[in-house]
Amino acid sequence: MEGTEVAVDRVRKVGEGTVAVDLPTPDGWSINPGQFVQVGAPVDDGFVVRHYTVSSPYSGEGFEITVGVDPEGDLSPVLADLDEGEYVSVDGPYGRSYYEDEDSVVVLAGGPGVGPAVGIAERVADEKGAQNAAVVYRDVEHAHVDRLEALRDEGARVVLLDDDEALRGTVADLLDGAQVFVYGFEGFVQEAAEALDAAGYDGEPKVENFG
Ligand SMILES: Cc1cc2nc3c(=O)[nH]c(=O)nc-3n(C[C@H](O)[C@H](O)[C@H](O)COP(=O)(O)OP(=O)(O)OC[C@H]3O[C@@H](n4cnc5c(N)ncnc54)[C@H](O)[C@@H]3O)c2cc1C
């Protein structure tokens, strides 16, 4: 068994094939949205660990991860089926591509990358004003729609793209000195880099590649 054992607070569906898992923050942890944790649970006769990115804006007593469920995967379906009070292990937090009090952000999110996107955008909306947060999110079926709509209502710029829509051309108008974050699987991360190049972004994006 690796890491610290924690009892699950809640698992809820936040979109088709996507769940949010609420976990208590272990003593001594300081977590920022966009950092990732290693989560482990028993699967069949073994113990499987995977990484998940923090999707809550704050993580004082508890934090949230957002899990895209791969029906063929080892761990994500197990996490989606957890009941309140069941135990998982957590280790971390890890990562360098997380929110560090920037005044203005643009988050490019593919699939479950929507988790850190909403967490970071909500934090910025709360502390810097919603007009300083922008999210471009592409997915087959969008998750966390209620939180994205709330952000938009507050004044954040939220662009939802279908899975077959190109990122290129969607980011140029949003950049304007903002720190860019990119969260998603390999193909999305590569396309985001190309879209940023095409838009003339000359900053250093904070990128987390989900593999
Ligand atoms: C830094 C980081 C942050 C991440 N953050 C998130 C996040 O916030 N949310 C999120 O949902 N995910 C995130 N991920 C991805 C996550 O860690 C898992 O990879 C994902 O949930 C799939 O895990 P799984 O055990 O369900 O599937 P796996 O068992 O890993 O399988 C994934 C797919 O690969 C196929 N497969 C497995 N083995 C083989 C093989 N030998 N040959 C062919 N196909 C195979 C499976 O059938 C399945 O379709 C992150 C990854 C990293 C590295």
Present the secondary structure layout.
Elements: E1 4-7, E2 10-15, E3 18-24, E4 36-43, E5 46-53, E6 62-68, H1 76-80, E7 87-94, E8 105-110, H2 114-128, E9 133-139, H3 145-154, E10 157-162, E11 179-184, H4 186-198, E12 206-209
Parallel strand pairs: 8-9, 8-11, 9-10, 11-12
Antiparallel strand pairs: 1-7, 2-3, 3-6, 4-5, 4-7
Helix pairs in contact: 2-3
CATH evolutionary superfamily of the largest domain = Nucleotide-binding domain of ferredoxin-NADP reductase (FNR) module
Main beta sheet, described?
Answer: 5 strands, parallel
Number of domains: 2
Q: What is the molecular shape?
A: globular
User: Are any ligands bound, and if so which?
Assistant: flavin-adenine dinucleotide
Question: What is the CA-CA span between the terminal residues?
Answer: 24 Å
CATH class descriptor name of the largest domain: Alpha Beta
Q: In total, how many beta strands?
A: 12
Radius of gyration from CA coordinates: 16 Å
What's the SSE pattern?
A: EEEEEEHEEHEHEEHE
Task: Kindly report the spatial arrangement of strands forming the biggest sheet.
Answer: 10-9-8-11-12
Percent strand equals 35-45%
**Structural class given helices, strands, pairing?**
alpha/beta
